[in-house]
Amino acid sequence: VTGVQTCALPISVLVLCGSKDRANRKAARELAEQLPQARLHWIAGAGHEANLDSPEVMAELLRSFYQSLS
Fold first, then answer.
1. What is the pLDDT of residues 22-34, one digit of tens each?
2. pTM, entire model
3. Strands 38-43 and 13-18
C-alpha cells in the first residue's frame, strides 16, 4: 500500500482479511481507507490463510460482492 496512489482507482474493491491475521490487518485497514469504493470485511476466526480457514465464508463474500457489481 505504501507509495502507491490507490485512491485514483475508480472501481469497487473488496478487501478481505482474517480477524486473526496479524501480518495484514493494518495493511487491509489502510487499503480500505484509501480506496473510496472499498468494502472491508473481517473474516471472523480466520488467520493469514482465510480462504483455507473459512472457505465457505470466503466463497459467500466473493459471490455477494460479484453479484453487487452486476
1. 999 999 999 999 8
2. 0.83
3. parallel
